[in-house]
Amino acid sequence: MILLKHLHSDDTPGQVGAGLALGAILGLTPLLNLHNVVVLILIIMLRVSFSGALLGWLIFTPLGFAFDPLFDALGHRLLLETPALNGVWTTLYNTPVVPLTNFNNTVVLGSLAVALALFLPLNALGRFGVRRYRTAVQAWVRSHQPPPPPAPAPGTAAVRRYPPPSRPVRRAGGAGGGIIRWKGTGPFLLFVGLLVGGWLLFADRLAKGAFESVGTAIVGAKVEVGSLHLDLSHGKVSIRGLVVASPDEPLKNLIEADELTADIGVAPLLEKKVVIDRLLANGLRFGTARQSDGRTAGPSDGIKAQVGEFVQRLDVPILQLAVGKVEVGQLDPNVLFTGREALALVARADSAQSAWNAAAGSLDVQAAGDSGVAMAGRLRNAKPTDIGLLADARRTLSQVRQARDRVEAVDRGVKSGIASLQAGAAELAAVRQRDYAIARRVLKVPSLDLPSMGAALFGPAAAARFQRALYWSRVAREYMPAGLLPQSAPGAGWVRRAGTSVRFPREHTLPGFLLRNAELSFILDAAGPAARQRRYAGRLMGLTSSPRLYGRPTTLFAEAPGVRVAAALDHVRPVPRDSGMGTAQGAALPGLDLPSLPLHLAPGQGTVTLSFALVGDSLRGRWSVHTDAARWLRDNGAAAGPAGQVLVERVITGVRILDISARLSGTFDRPSLSVSSNLDRAVGDQLRAVLADEIEAADRQIRARVDSLFETPVELANSRVTMLGGDVYTRVGAQRMRLADAQQQLEQRLRQLTGGILR
């Protein structure tokens, strides 16, 4: 019916074609974008066919959903794979109002490019179709319509009561002519009123949803807001009841805030940039409990996986005291290295032997040696005036020297290779020692080494602290990258395909997000009694999505009696530098569970210090705890352990003064963790007294098992290295001696004939 209605309407073919093309733009591109608002205004205010626009929207909307993958690929090619257009996109991205069109999204740009490319063809197609219909079909349709009812006779009551209204003749261009539909002013004002009313009714909800979704993606856990209010006329934003779940602990919140009040710049919003000049945060609380798991899946999962791999690389020994007898289970040879190193050494020896045999066989210096000896014999009866013979002797001497150089090169290669392989054979002993240590950890055999004891007792707790610091540093590098290259991120979650949104920063412009200054008011010991809760203040400055544009590092500082926190994220330079430290004195310290022991440490009040630095990929960190009021709580549900465990528990629970120190070093791929405490010696001495014999027996058993697994390949490797060279060394040595003798004879005779001059 819509099709027949607009085909039989008074709209011109040009109006129908323009309406169809504009409606196609609405259907092909995601609807909730600024450019579609402009298209709707054009449909209302220009003399185009409403029914044609509606028809175009209805036809092309399902096509837009169907071709979203194609639009995504086209937009990706234009935004990220066409460097020649980077300047255009950068200019548009930093031009007011234009970023509100979301042109920097791959789906939006790809669909808009296709819609604009089809605009003129669809316009022409609409005109052609309407003309063809009206010339070929419309006359036939009208001829088959029923005739209109006869007009009443003059003077009848019907004529007197209902006189026909006078209708002016409608011109081809519509009433009034021109391209502007002035009667559309009313619908236009109604449309603007709907937009303003929708903003007033739903702006707070939309901003709240956007804040929660973006925050959840960045943190990697749920971000919930009680209420959010926008007051753009005064440049104010207020947030109440902010709750950010912890990405590490399922039933804890990272932070809660009673109220956040921000002074926001209105003009940068036209460039889709958020600039907060001043932020007041009141009632911040950390580590509060929650009722449900706040962790979520999202863009931060990749960072979580990387940090998880980092923790797996830390060498934390096992403290195994759950049984009275130390038993050695089955050992998988695949986790050890001696066998692989031995077989690799055998392969190297065989390859070297083959290469040396080939090199020795290709020398072919027998002829040069024989020629040298023969020429020396001919020179015995020669005279200084035999110029030709002397010239031949010099050429022969040169050939002998070259042949000797080749032989000596092979000889040096053989000696160097033998030395390298012998060093490899010697390293097998060190590899075996490392396999002993690996086998102890795999089979969970306790160690009596004091450094290992400290790492076994408190290594997991220290690793957890450094893991959190590394996670937030990695998150900062992900969302605060250095440099000015285009930066891509997943697009917004529309009904249609999300695509990828690309940011194009430019020097001397505002970044996409900038928090200049934030004043923080936070509460410590929020979970404790009200009498122990203390309120402190801090300041956060220069938090931005483009540090290079802002030109200064992000800094955080908070200080109060007994508490000091400072952090700096310097992503301005090419090599990012992240550092932070915090110290709390007299604060309630979090508890710790000891591995393999049914004991929980309640440190009480004490001093804790954590420092962390990540420069490029180099790590440095330190975590220390001191308390004079340590309490040890035993799990009442745990069964009584063997005598050795009972004695160790007795030693630990008698300690009231506790000092723990952990240090992190190395790189992200090869980290190193060392932990020590005043419990190390006490627990180590107790283990020696109770479990020393069993541990030593288990250690001997492990060594014997490792030796038995690799006895054959190690013996094979040692024998191959011992037999290296062999015939090759003998052959090369004999050729070298023969050439040296021939060279000596020739040089001696030539000196005699030339009066000591040898060339």
Describe the structure.
The structure is a single chain. By secondary structure, the chain is an alpha+beta fold. Among the domains are: 2-144, no CATH class; 333-442 and 713-754, no CATH class; 450-514 and 550-695, no CATH class. Helix content is 49%, strand content 19%. The protein is built from 19 helices and 19 strands. It has helices spanning 2-7, 13-28, 34-45, 50-66, 68-80, 86-93, 106-136, 138-143, 157-161, 185-219, 301-313, 338-361, 366-378, 387-442, 450-479, 547-550, 643-653, 679-722, 727-754; strands at residues 223-224, 227-231, 236-245, 253-264, 274-286, 487-490, 500-503, 513-524, 534-544, 554-560, 563-570, 577-588, 592-593, 599-602, 605-615, 618-627, 631-634, 658-666, 671-677. Strands 1, 2, 3, 4, 5, 8, 9, 10, 11, 12, 15, 16, 18 and 19 form a 14-stranded mixed sheet that branches. A three-stranded antiparallel sheet has the order 13-14-17, with helices on one face. Strands 6-7 form a two-stranded antiparallel sheet. A hairpin with a 6-residue loop joins strand 11 and strand 12 (577-588). Helix 2 packs parallel to helix 4. It starts with a helix and ends in a 5-residue tail after the last helix. The relative contact order is 0.10.
